[in-house]
């Protein structure tokens, strides 16, 4: 379906001159997912600079039943931000909505527009001497609106929760074009339905988030980053318990990495080096934060010593500077990037109860090897909250196309193990296009019915991110 020229012109008139992109070379960065798994076409890419402009776009779309694709930093991993191939949809990029609207140090709150990047939100909180704890590898590009729409997780969920736990209020443009201003910083508001939670994790299917009031925290006065060796995921889980009980302050991150994943990072990512003298089957990246300085390091070292004494850890190194801590984190954050150099990769973003992670890994690794003998698994991620990025790299020297052709079989095998442990097929990336067909296999008819009822009530014309999620 193509849009009539006069309708295209009317949409272009909703934004400032130069902010309606129609030339293919101008649209290109907005039409492909960054890994090139999905590419679409659009009648226009619109770059509104205010909530009023977003509302004008939505009102026009509602009148003519034109599909709108909200987009933030285009860092999503399930295709939820990409238009279809019809050329009749409009991408609405929120990147120009990039103002910090209000700072509230006393109330530990920050109000920002949807196009503010996660890194910019962190910096704005830092200027108040406070912390916005959401953190993920794409934080320099990912936007707050996108984080909210996908309920992003990241590396600090263990201590601070998902995005849903970090949002106090929202502003959103509804499918009718009306603007709902729910930008409250209240910690208590027991007045009926919590409307903001309809939009958090909805992947743009119920409305377009244009601003948010975020929850801030006192900034830690001390922080220690540790790189440790552990014999197995079961030992890693034991280490988590020991350190969480014995360490001062909060364990904010507890990341699990396999030896093969580290090997390919060291092989392909310039400037990386192993922090320990000898490799181990598994490694951990641990971060501990506290509001005290006195005795903090000594207490953290004692917690590590206890984990070593119990056999949960075999070795550990504490970062001696911010640069060294960043180098530790680079090993973890480059793991997906390094896999590209080893050929095709079938990726899964799954979650199981924390106590079930070792059993899940044992069973899923066995299933993967049975299905594709010689495959090279890279299961890594957030052991502290049960979210594992269970990625499978093709066998050395295998045909990439043939391997990727087994994606559906591999998904079925891995997700069957997830189901046995009452887990989730999408821990933090969302559903988008990638997992839409799988949703009925993990949601009951009652759950799907409720979701469809909400969608129909708010977006009866189906203009909000059509073809995604449901």
- Count of domain modules: 4
End-to-end C-alpha gap: 21 Å
Number of strands: 19
- Give the low-confidence spans: none
Q: Calculate Rg over CA atoms.
A: 23 Å
Relative strand content: 15-25%
- What general outline do the C-alpha atoms trace? globular
The description of the largest β-sheet is: 8 strands, antiparallel
CATH class descriptor of the largest domain: Alpha Beta
Mean pLDDT: 95
Q: What's the architecture of the largest domain, going by CATH?
A: 2-Layer Sandwich
CATH topology of the largest domain: Uridine Diphospho-n-acetylenolpyruvylglucosamine Reductase, domain 3
The helical percent reads 25-40%
Total number of helical segments? 17
Structural class: alpha+beta
Can you walk me through this structure?
With 470 residues, the protein is α+β, with helices and mostly antiparallel strands. It has four domains: 5-93, Uridine Diphospho-n-acetylenolpyruvylglucosamine Reductase, domain 2; 100-218, 2-Layer Sandwich (Uridine Diphospho-n-acetylenolpyruvylglucosamine Reductase, domain 3); 222-336, Alpha-Beta Plaits; 343-430, Alpha-Beta Plaits, CATH 3.30.70.2740. The protein contains 17 helices and 19 strands. The chain has helices at residues 5-12, 24-31, 51-64, 118-127, 144-150, 157-160, 196-199, 233-246, 259-268, 296-309, 322-333, 335-339, 357-371, 400-404, 407-420, 439-442, 445-458; strands at residues 20-21, 44-46, 68-71, 90-93, 100-104, 109-113, 130-131, 167-173, 179-182, 208-215, 217-218, 222-230, 250-258, 282-290, 315-318, 345-346, 349-351, 376-382, 387-393. Strands 12, 13, 14, 15, 16, 17, 18 and 19 form an eight-stranded antiparallel β-sheet that branches. A five-stranded antiparallel β-sheet has the order 5-6-10-8-9. Helix 8 (233-246) runs antiparallel to helix 10 (296-309). The longest helix has 15 residues, at 357-371.
């Amino acid at each position: 379906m193509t849009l009539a020229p006069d309708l295209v012109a009317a949409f272009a008139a909703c934004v400032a001159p130069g902010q309606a992109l129609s030339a293919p070379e101008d649209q290109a960065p907005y039409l492909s997912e960054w890994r090139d798994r999905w590419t679409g076409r659009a009648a226009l890419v619109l770059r509104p600079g205010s909530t009023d402009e977003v509302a004008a776009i939505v009102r026009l779309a509602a009148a003519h039943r034109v599909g709108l694709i909200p987009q933030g930093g285009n860092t999503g991993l399930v295709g939820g931000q990409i238009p279809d191939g019809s050329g009749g949809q409009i991408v609405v990029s929120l990147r120009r909505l990039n103002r910090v609207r209000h700072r509230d140090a006393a109330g530990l709150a920050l109000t920002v527009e949807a196009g503010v990047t996660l890194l910019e939100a962190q910096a704005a909180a830092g200027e108040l001497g406070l912390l916005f704890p959401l953190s993920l590898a794409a934080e320099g590009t990912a936007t707050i609106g996108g984080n909210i729409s996908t309920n992003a997780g990241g590396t600090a969920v263990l201590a601070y929760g998902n995005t849903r736990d970090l949002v106090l209020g929202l502003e959103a443009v509804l499918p009718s074009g009306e603007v709902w201003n729910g930008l409250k910083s209240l910690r208590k508001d027991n007045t009926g339905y919590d409307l903001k939670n309809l939009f958090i994790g909805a992947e743009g299917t119920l409305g377009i988030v244009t601003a948010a009031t975020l929850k801030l925290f006192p900034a830690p006065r001390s922080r220690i980053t540790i790189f440790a060796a552990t014999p197995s995921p079961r030992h890693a889980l034991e280490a988590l318990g020991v350190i969480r009980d014995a360490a001062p302050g909060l364990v904010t991150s507890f990341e699990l990495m396999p030896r093969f994943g580290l090997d390919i990072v060291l092989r392909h990512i310039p400037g990386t080096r192993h922090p320990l003298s000898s490799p181990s089957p598994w490694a951990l990246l641990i971060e501990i934060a506290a509001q005290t300085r006195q005795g903090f390091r000594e207490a953290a070292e004692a917690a590590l010593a206890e984990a070593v004494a119990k056999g949960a850890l075999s070795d550990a190194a504490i970062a001696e500077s911010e640069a060294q801590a960043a180098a530790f984190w680079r090993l973890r954050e480059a793991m997906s990037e390094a896999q590209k150099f080893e050929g095709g990769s079938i990726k899964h973003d799954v979650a199981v109860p924390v106590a079930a992670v070792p059993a899940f890994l044992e069973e899923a690794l066995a299933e993967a090897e049975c299905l594709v003998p010689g495959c090279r698994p890279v299961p890594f991620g957030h052991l502290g909250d049960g979210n594992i990025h269970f990625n499978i790299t093709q066998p050395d020297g295998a045909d990439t196309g043939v391997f990727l052709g087994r994606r559906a079989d591999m998904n079925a095998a891995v997700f069957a193990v997830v189901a046995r442990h009452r887990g989730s097929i999408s821990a933090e990336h969302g559903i988008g296009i990638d997992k839409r067909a799988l949703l009925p296999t993990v949601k009951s008819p009652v759950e799907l019915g409720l979701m469809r009822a909400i969608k129909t009530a708010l977006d009866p014309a189906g203009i909000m991110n059509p073809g995604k999620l449901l």
